[in-house]
Amino acid sequence: MEEVKFAQLDQQQLDKINELEKKIGVTLVAYDSATMPPQGSGAYQASNSTHNNHPS
């Protein structure tokens, strides 16, 4: 199993994350993209599109 690490964020980035969490009412998690499995590996799927359809 591949290890995925949390991103190291500066204070400005943390402030933005906290602002967005309050605005949309969810908890956000930032991962270090350098440690993410490659797309298409089946372990993790990501999209760079600006619109995602989620069933929730």
Protein described:
Residues 35-56 are annotated as: Disordered. Residues 36-56 have a biased composition (Polar residues). This protein is an all-alpha fold. It has a domain at 1-34. 25% of the residues lie in helices and 0% in strands. The chain is built from one helix and no strands.
Provide keyphrases for this structure.
mainly alpha; 1 helix; 25% helix; elongated; disordered C terminus
Uncertain segments of ≥5 residues (pLDDT<50)? 49-54
Number of strands: 0
Terminal residue distance: 27 Å
CA gyration radius, whole angstroms: 13 Å
How many strands, which pairing sense, and closed or not: the largest β-sheet?
none
Binned strand content = under 5%
Indicate the mean pLDDT: 76
Number of helical segments with 4 or more residues: 1
Element-level helix/strand string: H
Please bin the fraction of helical residues: 25-40%
Structural class: mainly alpha
- Shape category: elongated
Region (Disordered): 35-56
Biased composition (Polar residues): 36-56
Write the layout of secondary structure elements.
Layout: H1 11-24
Briefly characterize the structure.
This protein is mainly alpha-helical and 56 residues long. It is built from 1 helix and no strands. It starts with 10 loop residues before the first helix and ends in a 32-residue tail after the last helix.
